[in-house]
Amino acid sequence: xxxxxxxxxxxxxxxxxxxxxxxxxxxxxxxxxxxxxxxxxxxxxxxxxxxxxxxxxxxxxxxxxxxxxxxxxxxxxxxxxxxxxxxxxxxxxxxxxxxxxxxxxxxxxxxxxxxxxxxxxxxxxxxxxxxxxxxxxxxxxxxxxxxxxxxxxxxxxxxxxxxxxxxxxxxxxxxxxxxxxxxxxxxxxxxxxxxxxxxxxxxxxxxxxxxxxxxxxxxxxxxxxxxxxxxxxxxxxxxxxxxxxxxxxxxxxxxxxxxxxxxxxxxxxxxxxxxxxxxxxxxxxxxxxxxxxxxxxxxxxxxxxxxxx
Length: 309
Fold this sequence. Notes:
The protein is α/β, with parallel strands linked by helices. The protein contains 11 helices and 10 strands. Strands 1, 2, 3, 4, 5, 6, 7, 8, 9 and 10 form a 10-stranded mixed beta sheet that branches. It is globular, with a radius of gyration of 20 Å. The N and C termini lie far apart (53 Å). The mean pLDDT is 95.
């Protein structure tokens, strides 16, 4: 089997539309693995509408929840029999040509562990409201890290396809709280040796809605995940040797911007946590000022956010 599509499912509102987009693929060699995270939305009723042998349905006895959602990602991976694996959000959609196009590029680049495509951002009515930028067909891990830090790369978990054997080799997707940055770091890890291949075609439709972790979730855990991502990148580039001149330059540039880029995002999450006169949250943050590497000016900034936002 060529592809396994894992759906760590919880929300039912767009789930049927999601499954329809998968079953309308013009490439047939795939399986769908649904792991229901003890959803209250009766997802099995939606699944049973589709009489397709390629669908496998599993339900967790207990809800894993948003904080540990990567555990559900990896539970999907455990059931995968395909050579290549992709995760699908329960409210997103694929182009009918998604698997066919990826299969073509996989044949062209057999040694690469991770592939990526262009994404259209859609609203709750499935209308396109934005578009991710194009990338070069191939780029190194260091290039991808650098451009991601510079906010020149917009990417989501479902616009990546991974070699299943590689994911199993690293014990699954890298786990951060709320899966915040887990997709980034897993892709970086996969691109380490042979880079990442990009398909400059819109094949994935990411739905923005009020229920996404990206628009909800715990501000403290998101800040924590940002620190973990920074630590991972720093350890990775510090461990690299035998670099050519270009890689040396990129590493130098990453080192120059890593702290400032990470710190600004951490500060943004902390600001989200304290605004609206949330004095207890402010106290919690200031008590851990060393952990979050807050300067006096940062602390004053957060105090003003707390009082006046």
